[in-house]
From TrEMBL:
Pathway: Cofactor biosynthesis; riboflavin biosynthesis. InterPro entries: DHFR-like_dom_sf (IPR024072), RibDG_C (IPR002734), Riboflavin_Biosynth_HTPR (IPR050765). Residues 80-272 form the Bacterial bifunctional deaminase-reductase C-terminal domain. Pfam families: RibD_C. It comes from the Bacteria. This is RibD family protein. SUPFAM superfamilies: Dihydrofolate reductase-like. Keywords: NADP, Oxidoreductase.
């Protein structure tokens, strides 16, 4: 990133966020030419998300642009782009043994999560997360549109009283095993949950194939997808090679026991460990690790 100071105007956080949303929308339509201008202030963005401006850029705005522009300009022509986000302690826990997770990370990280939601078409959560946290999956802490809410629930076990089914805050997909889809659809109809669509999935002994979930969302027009939780759901998408990016937010907290952030097959030697390219940023007292899973670390 390089910046020159030829303009008297400043790029502050609200302007940076509007630009990020504008660029994300333009690249989704393949109509972004690498330049955006508002009120006489110009921003130029290269194919990798690097940027420069003719205006003075506030520090918080500069970090926001640096975090999000690589994601916003990623090539969507070969299929959806998937990002996952984890909030974890220093010792790699996302919750206590009872599932308590409110809140491992701080307010700045919560705002970051809501920005992530605002930049995607769909947010995917597993049944366990909906049962434990009853999340709204909205963007109430930032300016933007609520994404499609996707509940991955093969056994159709999520309680009907959970907010994703009772609050019409955003369109919602309930993904269940094909054998349970008819009953689940009837349950949602009796509930009057007109914002919920039941979608059948093929399920085998290994469970749901994450690639099938991605394909279903792609058919529905979703180009950018957030896999938000829980840890097991994110782990399955990571193991299946479906994730393009991972945002791991680490809080200065030691829980000592509890639910791990990621659970992957065991390896015997470190040469089989994943070593993706990674950048880091501060979010209040937390640290954001922006992991590019499609690119290896520099050697």
């Amino acid at each position: 990133m390089t910046t020159s100071f030829e303009s008297a105007a400043n790029i502050d956080t609200p302007l940076a966020w509007r630009w990020i949303r504008d660029i994300a929308a333009a690249t989704r339509r393949q109509r972004f030419d690498g330049r955006i201008e508002r009120d006489g202030v110009r921003l130029e963005v290269d194919a990798g998300g690097g940027w420069r401006s003719d205006a003075r850029v506030d520090a918080e705005a500069a970090q926001l642009l640096s975090i999000w522009l690589p994601w916003c300009v990623a090539d969507l022509s070969h299929g959806p782009q998937l990002i996952a986000q984890l909030g974890q302690s220093l010792d790699g826990r996302i919750a206590t043994v009872t599932g308590a997770s409110h809140y491992v990370t701080g307010q700045a990280s919560l705002v970051h999560l809501h920005r992530t939601r605002a930049l995607v078409d769909a947010v995917v959560v597993g049944a366990g997360t909906v049962e434990a946290d009853d999340p709204q999956l909205t963007v109430r802490h930032v300016e933007g549109d609520n994404p499609l809410r996707v509940v991955l629930d093969p056994r159709a076990r999520v309680c009907a009283t959970r907010g994703v089914f009772t609050r019409d805050l955003a369109p919602t997909w309930h993904l269940v095993a094909a054998a349970r889809a008819e009953q689940a659809a009837a349950d949602r109809a009796r509930q009057g949950a007109s914002h919920v669509s039941v979608k059948p999935l093929q399920v085998d002994a290994a469970g749901v194939d994450p690639a099938d979930v991605v394909a279903l969302l792609a058919e529905g027009g979703c180009r950018r997808i957030l896999v938000e939780g829980g840890g097991l759901t994110i782990s399955r998408f990571l193991e299946a090679g479906q994730l393009d990016r991972l945002h791991s937010v680490v809080a200065p907290m030691i829980i000592g026991s509890g639910r791990p952030a990621l659970t992957l097959p065991e390896i015997e030697t470190l040469d089989r460990a994943l070593r993706p390219a990674c950048r880091h940023f501060t979010l209040g007292e937390d640290m954001l690790f922006d992991v590019d899973l499609r690119r290896g670390a520099a050697t």
